[in-house]
Amino acid sequence: MRYVVLIAYEPGEWDASDEQARKEVFDAHHAFERFVDERGRRLESAALADADTATTIRHGADGPVVTDGPFVELAEQVGGYYDVELPDLDTAIAAAKLLPRSYTVEVRPTVRMDGDQSL
Amino acid sequence: MTGAAADEGPLARVVREEWGRLVSLLLARFRRLDLVEDALGDAVETAARRWPRDGVPDNPAAWLHTAARRRILDRLRAEAMALRKVPLLVVEGEGVAERAGAVRADPGGLVEDDLLRLVLMCSHPALDPAAASALTLRLVLGVGTGDVARLFLVPEPTMAARLTRAKKKIVTAGIPFAVPSADELPERLDVLAQTAYLAFTAGYAPGSGPDAVRAELAGEALRLVRVVLGLRPGEPVLTALLALMLLQHSRRDARVDAHGAIVLLPDQDRSRWHHDEVAEALALLASPALTGPVTVQAAGYAVQARIAAEHATAPDAASTRWDRVVAHYDTLLDLAPTPSAQLARAVAVAEADGPRAGLALLDGLDDQLPQSHRLPAVRAELLSRAGDVRGAQAAYALAISRCANDAERALLLQRRESLDR
Known about the structure:
heterodimer; A: alpha+beta; Alpha-Beta Plaits; four-stranded antiparallel beta sheet; flat; B: about 70% helix; about 0% strand; disordered N terminus
């Protein structure tokens, strides 16, 4: 099974944290990565820049509209993701529990897109 | 559905008793939730036609299993021809063919294990709790979709869609057909217990609709807990929950009168309580399963069961040991300080120390229970006992406006009227 692990956290939290807090965050990520490597594999991952640097593009009646900011304004913003392969949801949940406690984590399975003959 | 086994035909009986085992056995082998359920449904239809004509087979469950298995194999062959890719259910470990062989070689333990896998899959915390309850009744207990819909008071198409969505999530999200590791299992059994209790409460005290009690659904939820406790004997959370359910369920015949109206605890005919079930619950509460360390949830069910046991063992309403009931509520509030437990404790305090003492404890609950009809109903009752008729009338009016259950509202209307006399 392939899952995208979406990470949400409060904007500004990282800038406000001290060295010790940052070390704990790194340790948690390393624990997550070790766990995934033992049971499956990591395909991709990225930490995202703050949501206030996002640009949103929508198609309106008069064509594409470009606006400043993320597509939903929420207290929590998506701040990064892992794209992983793991045996099942229970393993993915166990991995997600290892990520820093300040995160809210969404685990979403990916689907194969049928119908595109060029793939 | 909850009729005595003697009233059931052999087909209804085998569906009732063996459905979960058949589903789990076929799932372990084929991993296809969609095919398994359809194939078993077809097998039951075929049996309904053939058994009356050809006679009931010696082993009805094996007959259904064989018929369903053939049906699945046919479908798999047809799909292989069409080269359609369908997502498989995730099963613990690889080598499904080997595992299927193992099931045949040793039907005892492994088959029971498969049933536990099925139960835990249906009650997975990643599923919506209400959908998980319904799915568990459908797949583990073999309750038909139409009956599940009726039990949960939703139209059948709504329930069918809810069940389909839950099954789709199981397959798409990769919820495994597996027993979790020993350190995860207690947590998962807690969720399973919540799932069963949700179904039980929907039957025991329906929030809406015409009936005061829907004993059928409560009975099915109770059966679910019995089945799982059979798989995990001595499991504290299931032991405590079964005791609690038995004690509440034992009053089912006395809780409504001949016209379907609610009869409150003090007015119930105690000879109509099922005293065998009370005895079973008391034995469960005294069992070693509940003497060791247990999860907060198991402890919560156990203390609620002990509260119910105080009522069940009092020879009449006047002899109820309200002091002990209040002490049990104190324990419950230490475990989980919920507003509904605070409300129930206030009632017990009113019984022990008088209505004014109870009323004082209701202050501050309004913010926490803004929609509840029970809070103003309790306040009305206690105000009326304290002699404040005008206050009681206002509180009854609020309770009546909030109450969505017809039988409960009828009782509230009747209590308000009796104030004037």
